[in-house]
Design goal:
By secondary structure, this protein is of the alpha/beta class. It has 16 helices and 22 strands.
Length: 476
């Protein structure tokens, strides 16, 4: 974060500075001159000398109760929404911490743009955001200092926290932007208007909140509409709803990518190896080069093309991009991590799930397993609204078409999935109440060389199951 005094932070957030701490104010001089020089954090454990601790009052945890812990880690001030008379560090009192954090990030980015060359790349889509972000975090390193969010920091808190990590030396800021309702991306792009906006796909994630796929498309299009003048819209030409967003990108340069359709950046001669990794020819107007992805699953080709289109727009050569894609790894946990597990193989894709990503994961299971026995441990897909039951049944049927010999459906929300799997002829289907029972089933019914997929929405808890299975070594 660029250095800011508490007086500046109070002015930028429309806050009031309070200093009632019994101990001397960290740093020199009165409270208004104390400087924040390190990251803003919402987790007291991540505070460091010079940090601003942002006290978020959540449903289960109130950050105001952790100001002492943040100060012990080196935080020099706290952004708060209620008075904290016994705070060990000065506080900036604001009506709404989340909005204040966004205002602070907006101003910091504006100052960085005035003082230096920084490019902002923003990514949205119903699937693939984090994988594409991780690819860009590795592909774009030749351009200089790069900031990208850890995991999925893609909401009203995570995005400004990522922006505030940028400094005068930052050359590329890669941002994930998620949406669960209309207006989300309009707000996020008001904080960080992108130079390059990437739209990956319009699917059924968060359908329960939006009501229709058409509404999801409108929400994703907000990213393109939030582009800076003369920005670049990077659009998936294989998705008709995405490529139609070109009409909304007034003044922007449109660059498309595709596996099937005609586009500026394309993948030719795609071949999947026995490990589920794709080899293809990367083609663009600037030339072509052969590359083999280190990531698993055919669906990663589309993510790689999106990342390649951004990299080419920022000046990298086709060969640089192809070489970078061949070594770029999966950085975020529980996202298509393929791990040896004794003589078995575990595919851990348990961070999140929707119908599109479920099908992609089951395709990867089939590709990786080859002739080995396929086991799918699947949990609930959340926020699907009225289509939830039918969508889960369809995924059960898709598991059968993917050759799954054993389907373990975890949780009451996945019962329809088990029903669809049984009706479609999966030899062994187990509907279990929770992760503990699922682990017991696997211990009793896995073969020595099975390939096991673990996949669900995050709150279903299957990420913990994947961790426990790997911790158990070769035996379930």
């Amino acid at each position: 974060m660029i250095a800011l005094t508490l007086a500046e932070i109070a002015a930028l957030t429309s806050g009031r500075l309070h200093d009632r701490s019994p101990a001397p104010v960290p740093g020199s001089g009165p409270a208004e001159l104390v400087q924040v020089t390190a990251e803003a954090v919402i987790d007291s454990r991540r505070a460091m000398p010079g940090s601003l601790f942002v006290a978020v009052a959540g449903e289960r945890v109130d950050g105001h109760e952790f100001i002492d812990a943040a100060a012990a880690q080196g935080a020099v001030a706290a952004l708060v929404s209620r008075p904290v008379p016994d705070s060990p560090v000065p506080t900036v009192l604001v009506p709404d911490v989340q909005l204040a954090l966004g205002a602070l990030a907006r101003e910091v980015l504006a100052r960085l743009r005035e003082s230096g060359a920084i490019s902002v790349v923003a990514i949205t889509g119903s699937v693939g955001k984090t994988s594409t972000k991780d690819l860009l975090a590795q592909l774009l390193t030749p351009l200089g200092d790069l900031i990208a969010p850890p995991g999925s920091f893609n909401n009203e808190l995570g995005l400004p926290l990522t922006v505030l990590r940028a400094t005068e030396s930052t050359r590329v800021l890669v941002l994930e932007m998620g949406a669960d309702r209309l207006g989300n991306l309009t707000y996020l792009t008001s904080i960080a208007p992108p130079d390059i906006a990437v739209v990956l796909a319009v699917g059924t994630a968060h359908l329960g909140g939006f009501g229709s796929v058409e509404a999801i498309a409108v929400a994703k299009a907000e990213l393109v509409q939030g582009l800076r003048p003369d920005g670049v819209a990077v659009l998936n030409a294989d998705d008709p709803r995405v490529v139609a967003m070109a009409e909304l990108s007034a003044g922007a340069h449109v660059q498309s990518f595709a596996q099937v359709a005609d586009a500026h950046v394309r993948a030719g001669d795609v071949v999947l190896d026995a490990e589920g990794r794709a080899t293809f020819t990367l083609r663009s107007g600037a030339g072509e080069a052969r590359t083999r992805l280190a990531l698993v699953g055919r669906h990663q080709v589309s993510n790689a093309l999106a990342a390649a289109t951004v990299a080419l727009a920022l000046g990298l050569t086709v060969q640089q991009v192809a070489d970078g894609l061949s070594v770029a790894a999966a950085l975020s946990p529980h996202r298509m991590h393929v791990q040896p597990w004794g003589r078995r193989t575990l595919i851990d894709d348990a961070y999140n799930a929707n119908p599109d990503s479920m099908r992609a994961a089951l395709d990867a299971l089939a590709a990786i397993a080859g002739g080995r026995r396929r086991v799918a441990v699947l949990g609930e897909m959340l926020e699907l609204g009225d289509i939830s039951e039918s969508a889960h049944e369809e995924i059960g049927r898709y598991a059968a078409r993917s050759g799954a010999a054993l389907v373990v459906a975890v949780g009451s929300g996945a019962e329809a999935l088990a029903r669809g799997a049984r009706a479609s002829g999966v030899p062994d289907v187990r509907a279990v109440a929770d992760v503990s029972v699922a682990e017991q089933v696997l211990a009793q019914h896995l073969g020595e060389e099975d390939v096991v997929l673990v996949k669900s929405s995050n709150s279903a808890g299957l990420a913990a199951l994947a961790d426990r299975l790997l911790g158990a070594g070769g035996g379930a």
